[in-house]
Amino acid sequence: MDNRVVITGLGVCAPNGTTIPEFSDAIKNGISGIRHQPDLETLNFSCQIAGKPELSEERISRYFTPLELRNLNSTGIVYGVIAGLDAWKDAGLAIENNDEPDWDSGSIFGTGTSGIDKFRWAINKIDELEIRKLGSSVVIQTMASGVSAFISGKLGLGNQVSTNSSACATGAESILLAYERIKSGQATKMLAGSTSDSGPYIWGGFDAMKVCTFKHNHEPEKGSRPMSATASGFVPGSGAGALVLESLESALARKAKIYGEVLGGHINSGGQRGLGTMTAPNPTAVQRCIQTSLKNAGIEAHEIDVINGHLTATTKDALEVENWKAALQLPPDHFPYINSLKGMIGHCIAASGSIECVASILELSEGFIFPNINCEDLNPEISNLIDVKSIPQTLIRQPINILAKASFGFGDINACVIFKKYSYE
Amino acid sequence: MNKEQIIEALKTIVQPYSEETSALAHIDENTDFINDLKINSANLVDIILDIEEKFNIEIDNDSMAKMLNVKATTEIIESKLAANAG
Known about the structure:
The structure holds two protein chains of two kinds.
Chain A: E1 5-13, H1 20-28, E2 34-36, H2 38-42, E3 49-51, H3 57-61, H4 66-70, H5 75-90, E4 105-111, H6 116-127, H7 137-142, H8 146-155, E5 161-162, H9 170-183, E6 189-196, H10 200-209, E7 239-247, H11 248-253, E8 260-269, H12 283-297, E9 306-308, H13 317-328, E10 337-339, H14 342-345, H15 352-366, E11 368-369, H16 380-383, E12 396-397, E13 402-409, E14 413-420
Parallel strand pairs in A: 4-5, 4-6, 9-10, 9-13
Antiparallel strand pairs in A: 1-7, 1-8, 2-3, 6-7, 8-14, 11-12, 13-14
Chain B: H1 3-14, H2 21-25, H3 44-55, H4 61-66, H5 70-85
Helix pairs in contact in B: 1-3, 1-5
Domain Carrier (chain B): 4-81
Protein name (chain B): Acyl carrier protein
């Protein structure tokens, strides 16, 4: 029989909070983590604002050995390890130095690219004919799976340890991959999550594509405007989110705190056919992904209380809302609440899905809906589709039962997860 | 720089790579980096880079392959230092 899968631990390294209490407080109060970035200005970026987690040296030194810290130049690994280990501790799980690995626990921790600053340093050394000076730290920090390798070594994980990569759908996908692993009985606990590096070398390509806003360099906190009439491109972000997924049986047996349940979900692709391209979503695939995730979770559209959208603050926001509307087929006044965390933290690329899932689980477990910020001037194309009451601009405190979270990525790929509040029977 | 001074400098260099406090405290010519100090073999290249920097010498690939214990390492450092002086 399939295992039911619950969430028993959360960790986060977000631009507006690097601990769960700090992050939970920030998202309730609409606190922005977007700041002006002097390095982007120096490098002539069009978009000179971004979201970056703020961590002290002291905090980082609690998660890494002095030797690991010596040549550590991978922000993504730092964020992932901090969020991952915090989630593990939050789940009440010990970090022990056992001789034997924990065969029943694994990790799927995704990223787009790893250690881009380290990579740049190594490439420069090679070009300066100093290859022998690279030392041993380049590969482990620049291999895509560096983050899951660091995490598993610290936790002694003995089950599947892997890094998934599916652009901006990476975080949501990691949760579904971990969920399947536990559901099918191949693991008892999985640390799911994703991370994304900070800095000019990760954000530069997006800046050059002109998908980031260049209109708010003087007012960073107003720059990320999902669902707004003045949305003019996304604000790049970075960080990591982590969730401990566990079989219900295991969580109950050890009397763990249960934040919520993963009911199911779906991952698909539009195949870059129809309206889909490398960078634009095929709406048929998006709608199908949402509908299939409901079927997979065994729920009806009207049961969804809240949608945590992908909603990046580009012109595609209206198309996304249209896709949700078409997929759910609900009367206009029965559309669920919909919100986007990107107004506060920007688009954290590969980390966006996992950070947003952490926010979603907090909403479910604490009973609130975080406010959408920077959409006081709602996009009329969106307000023509759904009731404006569905787009809260202030914090709502009310119990919610079911939340749908979707992320969409370059390559025309989609992931949708259905979470449910857990009620102790 | 005499042998004792080289070993003393080596001790400082290898210290961050080993958690074997007692073996580190009793480091001598017979100490093996991997068997006694339990240093991760991947870190041996980092130790060599640290040695090059500390002694201002360059260590070729053949010498590097031999530097698995304090005795061989000390001898190689001594010969490179002598070559530099000459």
